[in-house]
Amino acid sequence: MIQHSFQNNKPTLYIVSTPIGNLKDMTHRAVEILKEVDYILCEDTRTSKTLLNYHQIDRPLISFHDFNKEEKLEDMINLLKNNHMLALISDAGTPGINDPGYELIKEVIKQGFHVVAIPGASAILAALVSSGLMIQPFTFLGFLPKKQNDKKALLETYVQRKETLVIYESPLRVKKTLEILYQILGNRKLVLARELTKLFETITRTDLEQSHNLDIDTRGEYVILVEGDHEPIIYDLSLEEHVKQIINEGQDEKTAMKTVAKLRGITKSEVYKAFKIKA
After folding, report:
1. Which residues of the chain have pLDDT under 50?
2. Which of 69, 73, 95, 241 would disulfide-bridge 100, Cβ 3.0–4.6 Å?
3. Alpha carbons 247 and 13: distance in angstroms, whole number
4. In this structure, are residues 159 and 120 in contact, taking their beta carbons and an 8 Å threshold?
């Protein structure tokens, strides 16, 4: 399927980026599109009305969020079938990133209608380009799993990845997440960004080892950025020899295996297997 976005008047779903904090961060094109469409789909009508009123946009709003997306999907498709133009916005940033937009976008494409992005503000990119960490490549992980074991299992798969990791996190879980990041990834450069584009925008540049000393403000979601894996240090010792050396320095076996994993930038399971097989 080839989409020629602007060569016909085919019913279209516009994916319109909105400000992530500062209401002025709205593109002229985004305002024009929102004034032209027949309906605007939004997460929270109260939040969206504040933005639309600021830019003098007066179009009908339809609530579309995680809790009603399944029942609303068919209604949205029917609107397109009746030649209505739709715009999807989120409470902040680009729709489809950590919100229910993906399911709608996928269904609209499946039904043969156009999906057109109207780019704009993005917390991911704002945090990344101001972080001082390597900008590309990067990997966006979104919100990590809430269960600690699931979170650890996911992060284990990124231990040796070289790209910058970008994570969204609730302020109530930031402290614990930073502890787990240090436990799994070892010490790396760390950047925390909150209240981006707002009056109290704060960007903290530190490292994972020192993050336990931070005072975490519990207002506003955080963007966590962690540098990728360093160039590995070449060790003359085998894994089992390295573990035994750490044990001789006073650590117990379990802690020694964790230490070796951190130092070498590998998973604990790799150390465990090698040490148990040859010990």
Report:
1. none
2. 69
3. 61
4. no
